[in-house]
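Quick start: load a record and inspect it. Here is Regulator of G-protein signaling 16:
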Amino acid sequence: MSCWMPECPALSMCRGLAALPITCLERAKDLKTRLGILLHKPELGHGIGTSSKLQLGSRWRDSSREVLEWRESFDQLLKSKSGVTAFHTFLKMEFSEENLDFWLACEDFKKTRSKTKLASKANRIFEEFVQNEAPREVNIDHETREITRKNLSGATSACFNEAQAKTRTLMEKDSYPRFLKSASYQDMTKQATSRGTSKRSHT
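Running the structure step on this input writes:
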């Protein structure tokens, strides 16, 4: 069936796609790819060229290995962008994502070079996460909170170190073990393991 035939349904589809802005089509393709990789759906490989399949397969293998590495240590999880995303999603379900958000804000804060920006960022982070009754107050002790408050008077890249360390320890001992036992992570590890087994059986 050819698109030049007036009554051809494919012609209508072609025209419909052509009428869409290029940015919409690009965003749709990008979203499909991102979701496919995140959810580890191999059907995204269907209908593409051999070269693309090989490249996508490589990404799957890397992703599978990465998912399994998250259970090795909390550090391994935090080193992985997709690991941080998965952990953040889990924390949101537990209504405790402020701990990770604070940790990430501190990591970004340490990269700040301008003294002016350092001071303004420090105050913003303190007001959002550290001070008493902050909008997204993290669970740290009074002593650590006061030490952090005093550090603001001469803000340096290390002024949140103690508070960040306490929050990290809390996540590692409390939220991280629950994440590893969660149904979502268990499902991801099963998929990663099955792909690894399938790969070995075909070699």
